Give the backbone structure.
Amino acid sequence: MTFEQMWQSVLAEIELQISRANFITWFKNTGVLDKKDGVITVYVPNNFSKEWLENKYNKHVLRALRNIDSDIKEVNYIIRTENENANIMSGIKKGKIDRAVFEEQMEFEELEINQETNLNPRYTFKNFIVGPSNELAHAAAMAVVHHPGTKYNPLFIYGGTGLGKTHLVQAVGNEIIKLDKTKKVKYASSEKFVSEVVAAIRNQSMEELKNNYRKNDILIIDDIQFIAGKEKCQEEFVNTFNSLYENNKQIILSSDRPPKSISAVEERVRSRWEGGMIADIGYPEFETRVAILKAKLQEKNCSLSDEVVSYVANNIQKNIRELEGALNRVIAASRLTGGVITIAEVEKILSQIITGPKKTINFKHLIKVVSDFYDISEKDLLTRCRKKEIVKPRQIAMYLLRNELKNSFPYIGSKLGGRDHTTVIHACAKIEKEIHSDKNLVDEINLIKEKLYSTA
Ligand code: ADP
Ligand code: MG
């Protein structure tokens, strides 16, 4: 394997783990220069990148490199100027050039985000594949496009990570503007909403913020679950919501779980969320996954054999972002090998995605993910605290420790409040049983697992 191939593979892996914007910012114009005695030298374009890679992403880089070559012990980052890079670039094969083109394209997309609406034009109905897992959400979204503010208000879309919520809610915004240019649309992630509320409180510019949100015909707030536990934001949300709603303005919300599973929101907030149409997006079926892969291939002007497409679709089932990431890797690899790729090679590429994160979860991480999910403190989960709202999260923590980490019953009992092992057995059996009759519980546990492995 050449340095070039090695770095491509590292980039493909990191791309899956961090946001697109960060990926482009920090990994553009980087590459491997040398390897000696287990030390890899990576070149970066400037001091800024160097600092970030050393301090923030070194772990990612090292892990990805070790997946390829377990002898690697250390990474050394050095700065190379544009000119030096240009010389290197001219000397290398097509792979690097493709990579550069690919990065530029991504950067172009980032730049294209509309300043006024915050919408990314990439997300449209045209490139949203519809299947049984998302047809209800899709139909509701289309209804909102044609009857904004009147048909389903609010529209609440929920589903696991990477299943197309952001794509769908942004497609609604883009389509509405396409049909009527005078419509004012605003898209905000709930993190952005929260940080704007906080800034407005600090700068005493609440009026401005209110106007900014209330002047819209369509307000889209993505990942609304993040306002749980933030009272001032909920208050502002309710006020904004009421003002828009009374004026027949459309509100669209997305979340990783249904309203009733979002703990730490006030009842009046929850009832607003539940007042319109709630639609979920589930895991895509095999045919939908194949259709998505084929559409992406067409978009990128690439082709892969049906066998390879089916193989990828069969092996990545629960996250469309990962499905795309896997496809990008396979495309990159097939380019390096001149357009053909064997199933064995695809298997190797995918095995890094599929089995990669499983290895690294531990007790501490699991407890953190469960307590974050239910918005309770780790201490409550770990002590004998008998508060009612802690009981279920603790049982779920026990269940996951048993099933995901294979911890013994006595061990789990001793770590979670010094309980007897029979208490743990009882808790696990209870969850096991409820899973059969309670679809929401299954969704909840799947979500927690997703968070567990995606943040490991
Ligand atoms: P979420 O917001 O639910 O985490 P995203 O909307 O960001 O997920 O989707 C993840 C990726 O998968 C995006 O690149 C998106 O374009 C793509 N995607 C999701 N659903 C579909 C679909 N039905 N058809 C085509 N692409 C999809
Ligand atoms: Mg999203």
Summary: Residues 6 and 127 are 32 Å apart (CA to CA). The pocket of adenosine-5'-diphosphate (ligand 1) is lined by residues 127-129, 134, 159, 161-167, 292, 320-321, 324 (CB under 6 Å). Residues 47-68 form the longest helix (22 residues).
